Sequence to fold (548 residues):
Amino acid sequence: MRHLILLGTLGVLLLPARTAVAQDRSRSPHGALTMECTTCHRSDGWTPVKIRRSFDHNKLGFALAGAHATAACRSCHQSLDFKGATNSCASCHQDIHRGELGADCARCHTPRSFLDRSVMARAHQLTRFPLEGAHLTADCTSCHLPAAQGQQQFVARQTTCVSCHQADFASAKNPDHAAGGFPRECAQCHSVTVWTRARFDHDASRFPLTGAHRAAQCAQCHTRNQFTGIRTDCVGCHQQDYNQASTPNHVQAALPTDCVACHATASWAAAYDHSRTQFPLTGAHRAAACMDCHKDGIYRGKPISCVSCHQVDFNGAKTPNHVQAQFASDCTTCHTTTAWQPAPFDHNSTQFPLTGAHRAGTCTDCHADGVYRGKPTTCVSCHQPDYNGTQDPNHAQAQFPTDCTPCHTTTAWTPATFNHSTTQFPLTGVHKTLTCNDCHADKVYNGKPTTCQSCHLQTFNQTTSPNHTQLGWPQTCITCHSGSSNTTAWDAGVTLPTQYHTMFSVNHENARGDCTQCHNTTNYAQSTCSNHHHPATCTYLNQRACGG
Fold:
C-alpha cells in the first residue's frame, strides 16, 4: 500500500520569492519544505496544527482514500521532514509475505480495509488454483499454513488434492486407497462441494460401463482389491469363454480376442455383424451360410475379392470368354450380388459412353476382334472403311480429319452435316444456300483461303462498269460490295466507298449509285464540278471550290 507523503510537494506550492526569503529555513523541522506555514499552523497558536480544507494531498502524488483519509499525519510522517517520506506500502505496513507476492499490496488489500477478504478471494481466481465449492469458504490459513521465516507460504504452493488431503487418502479403507493403488488425484471420485459421498464415474475412465457391465459389482472385475492396471480388453475377463467356444472354434479359427466383433455388453449371445468388416453382405450374400464362404476355416484375413470365391465362374464364362478377353477379375464390373445372371455391362462407366445408334449395337459389332481391354475409342478405329469409301467428297483426297464427329453423329451415319460456323469462315447470306462444290470444286477443304477474291476473282476481272482491272482497283471486294456484313447479293449489296468522298456525299445530286454520272470510265481519280455543272448554277460550295 502506498503511504501518505508530502515529499513530492516541493516546488508544487512554492511561496513567492519574498516569502521564501522571509522564512528561516535553518530552524524549520521540516527541512527543505517550501510550503506556506499557514497551510498547517495558525497565528494564534503554533500547535496543535490544523490542516486547511484547501490542502489537496492528491496533488502531492498520493491520494488519500479509505482509511488513509482518517489517519493522523504523524502515523505516516513519523519524521517532521516530510521530504523523506516514501509512498511504498512497505514503508508503513510490514510485509508478512516476505516479498514473495511482490511489493504491490493493492493486488489483495484495499485502503478501505487492509484485510478485505473479498479482494483476496477474487485475486485467488486468477491463480493456478481458482476457488470453488467448499474451498470458497475455507480459511486462508487452512491451506496456507504458517511457516518459518523465509519459507514460501503463498507462492509456488502445490495445487494437487493430496497436498492437503494426504491424511484423508491414507485413512480411506472402503476401498483401501493405499492398498488398491488408487491415484492420488482425488477429483476422480471426490468433488470440491463435499468430501464424503464419493462416487467414481466409470464413464470418465478408459472403460465406460455399458449394458450388463453397469449392473456388475466392482469386485467382479476388480478382484484382489486391484483397481489400477486392470486390463480393459474383453479377453481380460472373458478368456475362458473364448477358449471354450466351439461354433466356430475361436482358437482354431484364430478369431480376434476382441469379443465386440460378435458379442455385445447387453448379452453374451453372439450375433456377428458382417457390415462392420471390409466385406459388408448385400444381395444374395446375405442369405448365404457362413460355411458357404468360410468352409476353409479361414475367418481372419479372408480375401474379399470376388474371384476368391468365383474363380470357377470366371474361368468357365464363354460369352464372352473372360480369360481370353483378359477381363478384370473384379466381377462387379458386370455382375451384382443380387444375381449372377444376367450380367449387364454399363458402358457409360468407360471412356466411351454409348449414344445414338451405338446403344443398339451388340458387343461383337465393335469387339468382334475379341479386344475388350484397351480397345481404341476413336471413330476411325471402327469406321475406317466408311472413311476410305466416301467419294462425295472424297475424304482421303480432301485430307479430312479422321475424327468423324465434325460432320457425322452417332444417331445416323448419313446424312452428314458440317457446321461451317465452327470454322474461320461462318456462312451468311447467299453463302448459306450454296453447295459445298460451289466453293470447294477444287476439292480443297483443309486450308481453303477465306478472302473474297479467292472465289470472286473471275467476277472481278470480268466487271466492265466500271472496269475494275483497267482502273487498277484493289481486289478486296468488301470496299464496295457487301462483304462480311451483308452477303445477301453481289449487286444489291454494292455500297459506295465513303472514304473516297471527303467533299461530296456519295449520293451527290441524286447519283444513286451511278458512278458514271460524275466519273468517266477511265479515270475515277479526277472529277470537278465544272465537268458536270455550269459555274453559275454551282451552289454546293462556292465558285472557286466548284472550279468556276
About this structure: Residues 7-91 form one domain. Residues 311 and 329 are 8 Å apart (CA to CA).
